Amino acid sequence: MSLEKFISKARTSWMCSDGPDSEIVLTSRIRLARNIQDVKFPLLFSKEEAENVIQQVEHAIVKESNDQMELLAMSDLNELEKRVLVEKHLISPQLAEQSPYGAAILSEDEEVSIMVNEEDHIRIQCIKPGLQIVEAFKEANRIDDLLEKKINYAYHVETGYLTSCPTNIGTGLRASVMMHLPGMVLTQQMNRIIPAIQQLGLVVRGIYGEGSETLGNIFQISNQITLGRSEKDIIEELKSVVTQLIDQEKESRNALAKTSNIQLEDRVFRSYGILSNSRIMETKEAAKCLSDVRLGIDMGYIKNISKSILNELMILTQPGFLQLYAGEQMNPNDRDIRRASLIRERLKLETE
C-alpha cells in the first residue's frame, strides 16, 4: 500500500458496493473517541508527547495485529493530498487543517480509518455501504478492543470514556448515516422534518459533517448525546429514525411519480443533459444534477448508468480531486471547466 493508492482512486469498497437500502442510504459510519490515560489532550500536548501517542497506536494496530493497515503522518502530506483524504471521508477537516502532529491509519479497503491526535488521541472510524450501522459498530468495536489490549484508555467508572470535548464523554460514540433524500426535498418536507429529528437528540449535518454544507440533497444524520446512553441505545434510536426517513422518502418518491411524473422525468433528463454537455460547472450545480440523475436511476427513468458511477463522480468533482488529476493547483474557474470535462468523459465511457 502507499499514499498514492489512497489518494489516486475516487472509489472505495464502501462507495462502489450496494448495501441494504442503498438507493437512499449511501453509507453508515461509526466513530469512537478515545484518549490515553495520563497524557494531555492534543490541544495541550507537546510534539514529543504527540509522537509518543502515534508510536503507541501504530505499535498496537499496525505492528501487533493481523489487520492490513498503513500509517500516514499529516506532516508528510501536502495540502492537496490532505484535502483529497478529506473528500474521501478518510480523515476529518480538523485533522487535515489543525493537527500538525496528527496521523491517519487506514485499512487497505478504506472501510476503517484511525485518526490520531485530532481533537482526541484516537478516533476510530468505520464506514459501511447502505444501512449497516450495527455492522459498522461491530467492526469499530473490534478495532477498539485490539487497541485497548495495548493502550490504557482514560476512563472514569461513573462518566465513561474521557474526551477532549464534553459532548463526547460517556460512550465516545458518534453514529451517523449518510442519506440521499431528494424526494423529501422536492416535496418540501425537510424543513419540517429536521427540527423533529433534532428534538430526538439527533443532528442533521452536511456531507462532511459539522459545519459543512448540504450538497446534492445528501444529509448526514447522527447522534448528539453520548453521556448516560449505552452504545446499543444510541444505535437503535438512530436506526429507528433512519428507517422512518427511508419510508418517508419512498412515499415522497411514489407521490411525485403519481402526481408529477412527467415533470420529474423532465427534471431528471434535463440534469442528465447538463452533465453530458456542459463546458463549465460549479460544485453546487454538479451536486444538484448528480442528485437528480441518481434519483432517475433509482426510479427507473435512466437504465444505462450505474449508481456507483455517480458515487464516484460525487468525489471526483470535488476541488481536491480535480487538482490532483490535473497535476497542478487550479483557480475556481479552471476547476469548473475541468469538472465539466471530467463528468462528460466519465458519462461517455459509461454509456459506450
TrEMBL record:
Motif extent (RDXXRA motif of the pArg binding pocket involved in allosteric regulation)? 335-340
- Specify the superkingdom: Bacteria
Question: Which CDD domains would you find in this protein's record?
Answer: bacterial_phosphagen_kinase (cd07930)
Q: How is its activity regulated?
A: Appears to be allosterically activated by the binding of pArg-containing polypeptides to the pArg-binding pocket localized in the C-terminal domain of McsB.
The residues that hold ATP are 27-31, 89, 123, 174-178, 205-210
Residue ranges the record marks as coiled coil: none
UniProt key word Zinc: no
Which keywords does UniProt give here? Answer: Allosteric enzyme, ATP-binding, Kinase, Nucleotide-binding, Transferase
Entry GO MF terms: ATP binding; creatine kinase activity; protein arginine kinase activity
Q: Which reaction does it catalyse?
A: L-arginyl-[protein] + ATP = N(omega)-phospho-L-arginyl-[protein] + ADP + H(+)
- Record GO cellular component, one term: extracellular space
The record ties this protein, via InterPro entries, to: Arg_Kinase (IPR023660), ATP-guanido_PTrfase (IPR000749), ATP-guanido_PTrfase_AS (IPR022415), ATP-guanido_PTrfase_cat (IPR022414), Gln_synth/guanido_kin_cat_dom (IPR014746)
**What sequence ranges are listed for the domain Phosphagen kinase C-terminal?**
24-252
Query: Which Pfam families does this chain map to?
Result: ATP-gua_Ptrans
GO annotations under biological process? phosphocreatine biosynthetic process
- The EC number of this protein is 2.7.14.1
NCBIfam families assigned: PRK01059.1-4, PRK01059.1-5
Family indicated by similarity: Belongs to the ATP:guanido phosphotransferase family.
Describe the task this protein carries out: Catalyzes the specific phosphorylation of arginine residues in a large number of proteins. Is part of the bacterial stress response system. Protein arginine phosphorylation has a physiologically important role and is involved in the regulation of many critical cellular processes, such as protein homeostasis, motility, competence, and stringent and stress responses, by regulating gene expression and protein activity.
Q: Would you tell me the protein name for this molecule?
A: Protein-arginine kinase
